[in-house]
Design brief:
single chain; alpha+beta; Membrane-bound Lytic Murein Transglycosylase D, Chain A; Immunoglobulin-like; Glucose Permease (Domain IIA); 8-stranded antiparallel beta sheet; about 30% strand
Length: about 475
């Protein structure tokens, strides 16, 4: 028994000796996240699409963020984006507004211009296209900056600082200038929103483009807020724009984008001229995207002669291309029927009679559902400028709502208004019918900007201006 106990104690001693002399096996340390700018995952994102946006591989993003499953992304997740040297902050995606330049963006967000170029992989200022998605790496704790106009085009920064009682180096620091001489006459400067700004500095002309990017078949609305009694002029794709105002300060222009316009980039130029003769010109390329319209096949018995169509279009243009300077409508347009049962929507590429004619649908078609009547109503206030029978549209009524906006009601069986009548919303214009180029009883409803049909559903859903 004594021998067995001794052997047992000896074995325990040997084990304890080994435990104290053999070093433990090291535990692998968890890899640390890399540093760099962060991106918040958006709906529809994948590592591949995110990587393509930043010019890095999906594997690099996976490794930088220690992602065990590259497919297990969730909306709102923050990802470090590797390989963007010198760029920090939160990367956000925005639509580039009209008038914004690399200089404006770098001053507004206090960013390095070279970082903006790297993020967006651009090589020249001409690539800052309004309506295009643009990447910004912002400091989430950075105060927002607001734009202001220099008070005089021929005034130096030093002269302005003396007159406003401000240090010239405040202007230099806030606007990433090399010195007080490093500014172009009439240039926009930026200040933190929390700073008190001299009353001699004014907010610059405010220009809004809707929608951005532009879309085939939609209404281009341009809004310009500026000094009282200023004049606004401009062109889009070398076509003149007409501007209207009710208060002398807020100006609006509506332009119809043709539903079959080629997608791409087109020049937009605006000029603001103040009462004293000074002013500014803004010119930038604007992105026009596809409308995503489908196709349909239609069979009709008449109205396909292209000469008849051309004559009707030419006749309408003589009436519709002279905009009324007064606006008659207020708010969103109303549906022109009691029950909006839609049989065909705007923009569909149409094949008439197995290829006899190819065009697109210029409006919304409403058929009669279970309504007790077939009345057609005015969607908003305006003056009747056409009420007659035409070859294609049959019995048709056009209402001028002012500012170049017209509503159209075609294929009516009866018309209850005449040219010159002023109608109010819900006034009865006529009855749904089957006249002209029609495949059955329905109301063909259009909204025209000048002579260009635009998506009427947008005017039923959205308030203009």
């Amino acid at each position: 028994m004594m021998i067995r106990a001794y052997k047992h104690l000896l074995l325990i001693g040997i084990v304890l000796l080994l435990l104290t002399t053999i070093p433990p096996k090291p535990v692998a340390a968890s890899p640390t996240l890399q540093e760099g700018p962060t991106y918040i995952v958006q709906p529809g994102d994948s590592l591949l699409s995110i990587g393509l946006s930043f010019g890095v591989s999906a594997e690099e993003i996976q490794n930088a963020n220690n992602l065990a499953d590259p497919n297990a992304l969730f909306i709102g997740q923050r990802l470090v984006i590797p390989g963007l040297e010198g760029i920090t902050g939160l990367i956000t995606t925005d639509i580039l507004p009209f008038g914004a330049s690399l200089t404006d963006l770098s001053r507004q967000y206090q960013l390095d211009p070279s970082g903006l170029k790297t993020l967006n992989r651009i090589t020249s200022p001409s690539e800052t296209i309004a309506g295009k998605k643009f990447l910004l790496a912002i400091d989430e704790e950075q105060a927002s900056f607001l734009p202001y106009d220099l008070p005089a085009a021929d005034e130096t920064l030093l002269e302005m600082a003396i007159r406003t009682g401000q240090s010239p180096w405040v202007y230099v620091d806030h606007n990433q200038l090399k010195a007080t001489w490093d500014i172009i006459p009439g240039e926009v400067i930026y200040f933190p929103a929390k700073d008190e700004v001299s009353p001699s500095l004014a907010k610059p002309n405010e220009i809004t483009i809707n929608p951005l990017p532009l879309v085939q078949g939609e209404t281009l609305q341009i809004s310009v807020s500026t000094q009282a009694d200023s004049e606004i002029s401009g062109t889009f794709n070398n076509e003149n724009l007409s501007f209207f105002t009710e208060d002398g300060e807020n100006h609006y222009s509506f332009h119809g984008i043709h539903a079959q316009a080629d997608p791409g980039i087109f020049p937009l130029q605006l000029t603001v001229t103040h009462p004293d003769g000074t002013g500014s010109t803004y010119e930038q390329l604007v992105l026009l995207s596809e409308g995503g319209y489908g196709k349909e096949w239609v069979y009709v018995s008449d109205g396909l002669d292209e000469d008849d169509i051309a004559r009707e279009d030419a006749y309408l243009q003589t009436i519709l291309n002279n905009p009324t300077p007064e606006r008659y409508w207020e708010g969103r347009f109303q549906y022109p029927v009691d029950e909006p049962c839609t049989s065909s929507v705007f923009g569909l590429r149409r094949d008439y009679n197995d290829g006899a004619l190819s065009f697109y649908h210029t409006g919304l078609d409403f058929i009669v559902c279970s309504a007790s009547n077939i009345n057609v109503y005015a969607p908003e206030a305006g003056r009747v400028v056409i009420a007659e029978e035409l070859t294609v549209k049959g019995n048709v009524v056009y209402i001028d709502h002012g500012w170049g906006v017209y509503s159209v009601f075609a294929h009516l069986s009866e018309m209850f208004v005449e040219v010159g009548d002023f109608v109010q919303p819900r006034d009865i214009l006529g009855l749904i019918g089957d006249t002209g180029r029609s495949a059955g009883a329905h109301l063909h409803f259009e909204i025209n900007i000048g002579s260009i049909p635009v998506n009427p559903q947008t005017w039923l859903d959205q308030e203009f201006p």
